[in-house]
Amino acid sequence: MELDITSLVNRRADHRWDRIALGDMFERMTWSCPDREALIAWEGAYANPQNARLTYQQLDKKANQFANALRDRKLKRGDRVLYFSSNSAEHYIAQIGAAKAGVVMVPVNVMIAPDVIDHIIRQTEPKFSMVDDQLFLRAEEAFKTNGLKVGVTIPIAGSVIPGSLSFDQFIQDQPEKEPEVKIHGDDIVEILYTSGTTSWPKGVLISHLYLYFCAISHALSMSRGAGVASEWDYRIGIWYPIFHISAQGMTLSAHVIGGTAVMDRSPDARRMVDMMTREKLTSIYGGPIDYSRMVKIYEENPGQYATEYLRTCPYGWGPLPPEVDRKLRKIFREDLIILSYDGMTECVYDTRGWHHKFYETYEKSSPSLNYLGVSHPFYATRIVDEGMKTCPPGRTGEKVMRSPVMMSGYYKNEEATRTVLRGGWLHSGDACQYDENSHIILVDRFKDVIKSGGENVPSMRVENTILLHPKVENAAVFGVPHSRWGEAVVAAVIVKTGEVLDEKELIDFCRSKLAGFETPKGVVFVDQLPVSVGTKIKKYELRERYMDLFREEADSAQK
């Protein structure tokens, strides 16, 4: 054992007793609340019913078994393990197990297009993989092209990919003790891919320290002042995919304080309210459309679902209409904590907007203005001009951040890393303003990325696909407000002279080549596109022109 009891700076201690490592979070809880339920998976979100309800001790032991199985396969610190699977107890156990083994997870968004899957495999060169039998077909060709074999199958539908082991077989007979691995807080624990303005996504390097502090920051906002007797009483519902940083942070927020995470396969309003009642959830997370649908179910079924447990309702992906806020308070409690979150994979949830802290402003401005609130205590978030000077109220600038809850860079992409971290701050690409009370308002996005249903859609990728259609002369893709998706992908298209093209034909064409969330939700046909002197398309003009494209649909959904 090497001990350094002299140096006061430049220390990189990786002692087991005081390190920051994601997997240690679970081992530590076995000394605090071993028999409390840590993870509850609803039907469809587990392969083996024995994993449906796991205590901290059970979850920790199974994660150790997965970690030791990886070590048995000769995987070493820093090796990549690719996951092509969605929400399940087994997926979550495997994520914690990988963290304990010191390897690097590469959780792939199962909704992305096959060519993007191929790109991620090529760039990360995984040494091992785990897949979900319900979802593998979409990735099969990319696996085959790159010679990547399936190591483990999560048999949600009951089948095992030939040549692989089931999850249970993989961990069978493995020791339940902690693996002996050196891990430092700055070690990368996962690479999460997020779309940029180019055709290919960037791999965001996320450290153990990032996820640990992410969990604590969420727990502070979600449990403190929420009326629960202790941190252990914190129970959060998870239904958005945990291959996203937002759902990971929400799940870990329970586990860093001894609470319970209740997981479902995907968002479904009816199952959500049922889960809230049966599992006595104190917190949930979703988008404005999720809350609108839940309110409608409660209103149509008075007295059928519990209302006494819910304490906090964070949301993202767009402003929550005041009408929905009022209904939530009426159904649950007047002091329900409703707050907006904003952030990105590179630096998640840097702002918080509590409705009750500035309710008069919120009620007057939402949803026409998207108030983000104020900087989270774990972050330095400010709005700056091109010279990195803080903008005065009313002047538009870019939101930039500093925090321990921040990426370490883009994998194998030095140019993009230097660009986004210029000046010593992470540049969000979001155009924002301060109001007279120093609250942050999201005005627009400098970068050509559309945030649709929690997914980043690179407009250039969609435009390039549309231009492959033989009848299209030119196209511009942009986002407009949508009650369900936050932003909807819209294409403004110029059709070649003499050709006839309708919306359905073009959307079907895009759907055959793009992921569902990338495919345009609407198409407008134009004679010309607004351009600047430098021939750059002025997408802000298109956004303004078609801002109300889905307004009628939103109004009917509220009725």
Secondary structure blueprint with pairings:
Layout: H1 24-29, E1 37-41, E2 53-55, H2 56-72, E3 80-84, H3 89-101, E4 104-107, H4 114-124, E5 128-132, H5 140-145, E6 152-154, E7 165-166, H6 167-171, E8 188-194, E9 202-207, H7 208-223, E10 235-238, H8 245-255, E11 260-263, H9 269-278, H10 288-300, E12 312-315, H11 322-331, E13 337-344, E14 347-354, H12 359-365, E15 370-375, E16 380-384, E17 397-402, H13 414-420, E18 426-434, E19 440-445, E20 449-452, E21 455-458, H14 459-466, E22 472-482, E23 486-495, H15 503-511, E24 522-525, H16 539-545, H17 551-558
Parallel strand pairs: 1-11, 3-4, 3-5, 5-6, 6-7, 10-11, 12-13, 23-24
Antiparallel strand pairs: 1-2, 8-9, 13-14, 14-15, 15-19, 16-17, 17-18, 18-19, 20-21, 22-23
Helix pairs in contact: 2-3, 7-8, 9-10, 10-11
Characterization of this structure:
With 559 residues, the protein is of the alpha/beta class. The chain is built from 17 helices and 24 strands. Strand 12, helix 11 and strand 13 form a beta-alpha-beta unit. The longest helix is centred in the first third of the chain and has 17 residues. The termini are far apart.
Number of helices: 17
Give the low-confidence spans. none
Distance between the termini: 68 Å
Strand-residue fraction?
Answer: 15-25%
The biggest sheet, with number of strands, parallel, antiparallel or mixed sense and barrel status, is: 8 strands, mixed
Mean pLDDT metric: 90
What's the multimeric state?
single chain
Structural class of the secondary elements? Answer: alpha/beta
Helix content: 25-40%
Q: Record the strand order, biggest sheet.
A: 12-13-14-15-19-18-17-16
Overall radius of gyration: 24 Å
Shape: globular
Number of strands: 24
